[in-house]
Amino acid sequence: MPNNYPALVVVKSAKDWKTVMAWIGSLFGGQQPDQATVRSGIREFIMAIKFTNCDYDDRMEKALLPKH
After folding, report:
1. 33-57, pLDDT tens digit by residue?
2. Residue 2 domain-assigned?
3. Do 9 and 57 form a contact (C-beta atoms < 8 A)?
């Protein structure tokens, strides 16, 4: 997921998935999303992690390869 750290492949985050992750990240102390939002968020995540739906960052590739 996009954050402050570089990545070779970045998974895009969608609205419902962000809601689910916020709830999980709060150690289940936050407002639990309704079942439809959780299901939608999981579907969004599954679609987002497909390589064809990810963003490729060639800057990271250049940083990992030796310079000639």
Report:
1. 999 999 999 999 999 999 999 988 8
2. no
3. yes
22-52 as b/e, with b when 16 or more CB fall inside 10 Å? ebeeeeeeeeebeeebbebbeebbeebeeee
Centre a 10 Å sphere on the Cβ of residue 16 and count the other Cβ atoms it contains. 19
Residue from 36, 3, 2 nearest 20 by CA:
36
Do 12 and 54 meet the contact criterion of CB atoms below 8 Å apart? yes
Q: How far apart are alpha carbons 20 and 7 in whole angstroms? A: 23
Contact indicator for 32, 41 with CB cutoff of 8 Å: no
Task: Take residue 36 and report the two structure tokens written for it.
Answer: 């439809």
> Is-above-0.85 flag for pTM?
no
For the chain, the domain total comes to 1
Is residue 68 included in any domain, yes or no? no
